[in-house]
Design goal:
InterPro entries: HATPase_C_sf (IPR036890), HATPase_dom (IPR003594), His_kinase_dom (IPR005467), NatK-like_C (IPR032834). By secondary structure, the protein is α+β, with helices and mostly antiparallel strands. The protein has 13 helices and five strands. Strand 4 and strand 5 form a beta hairpin. 29% of the residues are buried.
């Protein structure tokens, strides 16, 4: 075997690393399909076939033939995996961007540093190993990001298609850059274009992630709002049940009187015990002249008692509130849920709810103990979290409702006391 042939075979290590990266990304993006039980194995076997064909026909590197070979490989291997056709094409696009950006950046940088044509970099052992490491590393990173993305994706297929327009242009530009500039020593303009495309794609991905996070947040808030609406309907139904029991109170007393007149003291005792339990389960503790508020606050008081949290209420007559029933439940439920959850971890576990009405506005203040002070930045809401101090995405729902009614809020956390105070105009702005 000649030295030239040996270097040619070593150059195909980059192809092997590249195809391995393709397989990792496709498996992370598409998963298993129904037709092929072991898609990664089939993709590896096809890579071996393409490797033999490349060596036998002396296809080489950084030319049109090698690009066509990789495109065919991508289009065929995605058939081994699952996913829809749109997802398969997206996987090909992701692999094309990853491979071209990585290889162009490394090879152009190496060629510029050595002052050699780009097509000659495969003759350097250090560059070959660097290319293999870069491509495999990029594949691992892309597969990890894709797996995480699949769990948290909020963009619709149409939005994803629009977002992929710019990366598609980058793929075409990288192919032109690879094929056209391979026979020349990279100039400063080539280097600027190579790194510029890489940075542009990274910025684009960052923007897409930000948009996806915002949409995911909105979906989460919407789901929570729907849940709160169902909770409001359940509370109202509970209040109606209580009203029916109150209406039937006279009938119950007549039945007890009849049992006592007949001397059936045991029967009267059993009847009274059953009646007491039923009334206790459906009686509200509060009396603010607002049926829904009474039911809601009573329920939260019982939940807090089960957790060992003391809740103190200071409330006026609330029969006229400047917001809808559903929005009212969203505000109070989220504030009390967060306060009770946080206070349950503190000592002593206490929550204070105070509300005041004037001719212009309603002022609501919820104050609770916390285990330790929260690090609030300029009075902003805490970051969304399902763990920790107990103040999660519910506060963001409260903020949206207050914004809807032209309300304002302030938050603070000092000396292990968390306070949320908001004002709601009596007339919707």
């Amino acid at each position: 075997m000649t030295k030239e042939m040996l270097w040619f075979l070593m150059g195909h290590l980059v192809c092997i690393g590249q195809w391995a990266a393709f397989i990792m990304v496709e498996y992370a993006f598409l998963g298993r399909g129904r037709r092929f039980r072991f898609p990664c194995l089939w993709a590896a076997l096809l890579a071996a076939v393409f490797l033999v064909a490349s060596i036998r026909h002396d296809i080489g590197f950084f030319n049109v033939e090698s690009v066509i070979l990789n495109v065919i490989y991508l289009l065929v291997t995605v058939l081994f995996f699952g996913g829809s056709w749109n997802q398969k094409l997206s996987a090909c696009l992701v692999n094309g961007i990853m491979c071209l950006l990585t290889e162009n950046t490394v090879s152009y940088t190496f060629a510029w540093y050595k002052h050699i044509p780009v097509r000659e970099v495969w003759r350097y052992r250090s560059c070959l190993f660097l290319l293999v490491a870069a491509v495999v590393g990029a594949g691992l990173l892309a597969a990890y990001i894709i797996r995480r993305w699949r769990r948290e994706q909020a963009l619709t297929p149409l939005q994803m298609l629009v977002m992929s327009f710019f990366p598609g242009i980058v793929v075409v530009l990288n192919i032109v850059l690879m094929v056209s500039g391979g026979s020349e020593v990279p100039s400063m303009m080539n280097m600027m274009l190579t790194f510029g495309l890489t940075i542009a794609v990274l910025i684009h991905l960052g923007i897409v992630q930000m948009v996806n996070d915002q949409m995911l947040l909105q979906q989460t808030l919407m789901v929570e709002a729907v849940r709160q609406k169902k909770s409001a309907e359940a509370l109202l139904e509970s209040y109606k049940t209580q009203r029916r029991l109150t209406h039937e109170f006279t009938n119950h007393t007549d039945a007890l009187a009849l049992l006592l007149q007949q001397g059936d003291y045991e029967g009267a005792k059993a009847y009274l015990s059953t009646l007491t339990k039923t009334i206790a389960a459906n009686t509200t503790i509060m009396n603010t002249h607002n049926p829904l508020l009474d039911a809601l606050l009573s329920k939260k008081y019982e939940e807090a008692s089960r957790k060992g949290v003391m809740v103190y209420f200071d409330l006026p007559d609330l029969r006229d509130m400047p917001m809808g029933q559903t929005d009212l439940v969203i505000v109070l439920s989220n504030l009390l849920n967060n306060a009770i959850e946080a206070a349950a971890q503190a000592d002593p576990p206490e929550v204070y709810v105070r509300m005041r009405k004037s001719e212009e506005e309603v002022v609501l203040s919820v104050r609770n103990r916390v285990k330790k002070d929260l690090n609030l930045v300029d009075g902003q809401l805490p970051r969304i979290s399902q763990k920790g101090a107990g103040h999660g995405f519910g506060l963001w729902n409260v903020r949206d409702v207050l914004k809807k009614y032209g309300g304002e809020y302030t938050i603070s956390c000092r000396e292990c006391w968390f306070r949320f105070t908001c004002t709601i105009p009596l007339r919707k702005l």
